[in-house]
Design brief:
The protein is built from 13 helices and no strands. By secondary structure, the protein is an all-alpha fold. Helix 10 (about 230-260) packs antiparallel against helix 11 (about 265-275). The longest helix is centred in the middle third of the chain and has 31 residues, at about 165-195. The two termini are about 20 Å apart.
């Protein structure tokens, strides 16, 4: 059986380097005046196209097939949209000792973002876990997050998050949900084309995210908001995020055991339930936070790199675990989804 491999020689995701380079470019050469208007319009179009591709990629058949393993998917959704936000709300006690209010808002938004798909699948495969379950869990999380993340953000952040209102939710529907649904509707005609050109389209959607980052950080530079962040505050943010990631990794692993899941399922739960999606979070933050998006996405960018590095180590260690004995009390329910492609990667 073919396994996805994460390069052992690559401790840092090259895409994170590109993101940081884009931030540096925005700091040195921020878009101003007419250039800012053009960048903003291009960013809006790029976000819509990004979610159109997400809709065109998601296989409705695979999503429906995965419903048979509903206990695992509900567990991942609870971790992503209940436990994470609860810890995010609890972190309010760290303001202003470790975090400034804007950084806290970014941290809280991070906890509302859906889970990843691609890296969850990759790490689950490396660790010899339930790959089909990871595919479905990540897909469900991303799909539900398009609607649930903005609603949660409006509920817990209110007007402090950059002006959440009915207009913000309308923007979410028009820029994210409508393109996604259009991609799903057109999938039967364009699905083959998307599959054949997934590498090229992957470059397009990653380039779209870079454009979103450049636009957000350019606006932040022109408004002078970066003067609010000191090295000490960044250090405090990293410490808080490290603690948050550690707690979620422990809860997803030992909580999965307490719920009676086998090893393969617990691996999928740990990797899908402990991570947050940069690809989904950045466009949402751009729409929801507007001029404050640069500080709002900083915690997400840092957490994203941290989760990749930590989970790469965990996945390699899990791969050396002894095989589970078939028929044992904790046997994985992965056989319920046998026959689905094990090496397929979705974003």
């Amino acid at each position: 059986m073919k396994r996805l491999r994460w390069p052992s020689w690559m401790p840092i995701d090259p895409y994170i380097v590109l993101l940081l380079g884009t931030v540096g470019l925005a700091a040195l050469f921020p878009a101003r005046g007419t250039g800012a208007d053009v960048a903003s319009g291009a960013s809006t179009a790029a976000i819509a196209f990004l979610f159109f591709l997400y809709g065109a990629r998601l296989s409705t058949r695979e999503a429906l097939d995965g419903l048979r393993h509903w206990r695992l998917h509900v567990t991942v959704l609870v971790c992503t949209f209940v436990l994470f936000p609860v810890f995010g709300l609890a972190a309010r006690a760290l303001v202003p000792v470790l975090l400034t209010q804007p950084l806290y808002q970014g941290l809280l938004f991070l906890t509302l973002v859906p889970s990843t798909i691609q890296s969850s699948i990759a790490f689950t495969s490396i660790a010899r876990g339930n790959v089909p379950a990871a595919i479905c869990a990540g897909s469900f999380s991303s799909l539900i997050g398009i609607v649930l993340t903005p609603l949660l953000a409006a509920a817990v952040l209110g007007n402090s998050g950059g002006g959440f209102s009915a207009d913000s939710l309308v923007k979410i529907v028009l820029q994210l949900l409508v393109p996604f649904l259009a991609g799903q509707v057109l999938r039967r005609w364009i699905g083959g084309f998307v599959a054949r050109h997934k590498k090229v389209l992957g470059l397009v959607d990653r380039g779209s995210i870079l454009l979103v980052v450049y636009t957000a950080f350019s606006e932040g530079m022109t408004r002078g908001i970066w003067h609010q962040v000191s090295p000490a505050r960044l250090g405090g943010l990293l410490a808080v995020e490290a603690a948050l990631l550690a707690v979620m990794l422990l809860l997803t692993w030992y909580g999965g055991r307490a719920l009676g899941f086998g090893r393969e399922d617990r691996i999928a739960i740990q990797f899908a339930g402990s991570k947050k999606s940069l690809a989904s979070g950045l466009p949402m933050a751009s729409v929801l936070f507007g001029a404050h998006a640069s500080l709002a996405v900083l915690p997400l960018m840092l957490f994203h790199q941290m989760q990749l590095m930590v989970c790469a180590v965990i996945a390699k260690r899990r791969a050396r675990d002894p095989e589970e004995v078939p028929g044992s009390a904790g046997e994985s329910a992965a056989h319920l989804v046998q026959g689905q492609p094990q090496d397929r990667v979705l974003r």
